[in-house]
Automatic annotation (TrEMBL):
Catalytic activity of the protein: reduced riboflavin + NAD(+) = riboflavin + NADH + 2 H(+); reduced riboflavin + NADP(+) = riboflavin + NADPH + 2 H(+)
Alphabetically ordered keywords of this record: FAD, Flavoprotein, FMN, Ion transport, Iron, Iron transport, NAD, NADP, Oxidoreductase, Transport
GO MF term (any one): riboflavin reductase (NADPH) activity
Name the record gives this protein: NAD(P)H-flavin reductase
Gene Ontology BP, a term: iron ion transport
Known function: Catalyzes the reduction of soluble flavins by reduced pyridine nucleotides.
NCBIfam families, sorted: PRK08051.1 (NF005963)
Length: 169
């Protein structure tokens, strides 16, 4: 006989929703939201599953200003981890200001993107980051390293680096 485990908290929440017919949500918290400055060039950095956040920021930024200069760096261990690369490449055909830079750490034969880490790719591509808005999504360790490297080596403005990790590190 299988036992059904009941999550009492979840049950209480659902009972309340069914009774009150409303949900009160208190958001946002953290630093992961698109700023209104649509003129500054933007760099989006997504490590692994951080892509979902970066994609949301990207689509909103393109809807607000389809001609904005945006570079998205998406890194993964292997090409198969860049599961939505075709969508990004299609977007770059519609938006001439969008540059897509896929990066894998362990490339297979025939890989057409960059090899290494997303942070190394950004450093290789930019002599200065002083004029950029930089959005970072991924492991907190990556965000900390990015902030340290970009500010010290590429003159990035710390007040123009955005991501939830920065509320905690």
């Amino acid at each position: 006989m299988a036992l059904l485990k009941i999550n009492l908290y979840a049950k209480a929440v659902m009972d309340r929703i069914l009774k009150d017919h409303q949900i009160v949500v208190d958001i946002p918290h953290g630093e992961a939201w698109l700023r209104d400055d649509e003129e500054r060039p933007m760099i989006l950095i997504a490590g692994g599953t951080g892509f979902s956040y970066a994609r949301s920021i990207l689509l909103t930024a393109l809807a607000r200003n389809p001609n904005r200069d945006i570079t998205i760096y998406w890194g993964g261990r292997e090409e198969q981890h860049l599961y939505d690369l075709c969508e990004l490449e299609a977007l770059s055909l519609k938006h001439p200001g969008l540059q897509v830079v896929p990066v894998v750490e362990q490339p297979e034969a025939g890989w057409r993107g960059r090899t290494g880490t997303v942070l190394t790719a950004v450093l290789q591509d930019h002599g200065t980051l002083a004029e950029h808005d930089i959005y970072i999504a991924g492991r907190f360790e990556m965000a900390k390293i990015a902030r340290d490297l970009f500010c010290s080596e590429r003159n990035a403005r710390e007040d123009r680096l955005f991501g939830d990790a920065f509320a905690f590190i």
